Amino acid sequence: MFEEGPVGADAGEQGELFPDASLPDELVGYRGPAACQIAGITYRQLDYWARTDLVVPTVRSAHGSGSQRLYSFKDVLVLKVVKRLLDTGVSLQNIRVAVDHLRQRGVRDLARITLFSDGVTVYECTSPEEVVDLLQGGQGVFGIAVSGAIREISGTIHEFPAERADGVEIPQAVEDELTQRRKARNVG
User: Fold this and answer.
1) How far apart are CA 62 and CA 46, in angstroms?
2) What is the rounded distance in angstroms from the CA atom of residue 135 to the CA atom of residue 125?
3) The pTM is what?
């Protein structure tokens, strides 16, 4: 079961996760092994979730032997949220309902959400008032701030090779002098 509160968080409350107004490119994706490392899951989990349509790659799905799935930034975010919900004991059935709801949101909308669960139901809160209302029930709950997961992913995703679904080459970031020195020191 998934319960949602009214969506109305101020855009400024999202902590300016994308301050330059850019969102991750919808044609850029990460192969399965990279998505696993970024989200903290096993390849077996990734494959099972894709085959059962829990979390499917939106950039490019697998189509035959040897083809590579490409997971978008949002897909990797949903993978990370699913992992956290599973780790806290939420049933796969309830996670599936929550994921269906999350798929309908854009990345900016997801950044405003905190998911709470009492182990049975997953609740969406978008304001401090909704959190207080939920906690006043006296039920023990845990929360997942989706913006925190976005920050975690944003901090590590650049370390993994990305590719575009349309085949256009992605320019590699130019390394700064400090990064070059660290690499040189680690080689020798």
Assistant:
1) 12
2) 11
3) 0.74
Give me the sign of the Cα torsion angle 134, 135, 137, 142.
Answer: positive
Distances (CA, A) of 122 to 49, 76, 158, 163: 19, 20, 31, 34
Domain locations in the chain as residue ranges: 22-170
Least confident of 7-16, 54-63, 64-73, 104-113: 7-16
pLDDT, tens digit, for every residue of 50-79?
A: 999 999 999 988 777 767 899 999 999 999
Residues 79, 35: contact at Cβ < 8 Å?
Answer: yes
Cα distance between residue 109 and residue 64, in whole Å: 34
CA pair distance 36, 146, nearest whole angstrom: 18
pLDDT of residue 15: 36
> Is 22-170 CATH 3.90.1170.40?
no
